[in-house]
Amino acid sequence: MPANILVIEDEPAIQELLTLNITQAGHNPIRALSVEQAQLLMRETMPDLILLDWMLPGMSGIEFARRLKSDEYSKNIPIIMLTARSEEIDKIRGLDVGADDYVTKPFSPRELNARIKAVLRRRAPQMTDDPIESGSLRLDPVTHRVTGNGIQLELGPTEFRLLHYLMSNPERVHSRSQVLDRVWGDRVFVEDRTVDVHIRRLRQALAASGHEDMIQTVRGVGYRFSAK
Description:
The chain is built from eight helices and twelve strands. The chain is an alpha/beta fold. A five-stranded parallel sheet has the order 2-1-3-4-5, with helices on both faces. A four-stranded antiparallel sheet has the order 6-7-8-9, with helices on one face. Strands 10-12-11 form a three-stranded antiparallel sheet. α6 crosses α7 (176-184) and α6 crosses α8 (193-206). The longest helix is centred in the middle third of the chain and has 15 residues, at 109-123.
């Protein structure tokens, strides 16, 4: 599942390079030259990860990171700081305000993509292309196939995304609103009960291999994926 990655970088050449790398890695880049422009973009699309330059016109990247992490709406968005500062004290400052990683310029495209993948794997594993297995149930994001006990299961695109999200976060209870935000997107306005409909369809698809009980209902709270 491709991630929406917001690139906040005021140097056009570096921004272009970052955008190209992100696209080649299979993700969707969103460009901003300043914090002000980034804030406008975030009203329309909440990113899955932010590449944030330290030195920006107007508000600095470090100050913007601090504000993002203090806001309930944006505090869970992972941030990778980009900067020419290489002193340890500067790295500590970046991490102290809540950045998930720190990349020093100049950097290689391979290193940056590895850092992005590592952060997404930790914070949003459903955004990576790594196969997921739980017992005899296997989901492969690259081939878009789900198999259970050697049987290829037929899932619709929404059910596939839903299973990917739940399998990426096993044993956790997810409310309907959380599932809507992560699977449908926080800017898509659909009723909470829509989740119930797709959960039912997902269970029906998993029943072909006997895995329907892995999708558990937690009464009054939401849903959980569990192999127990």
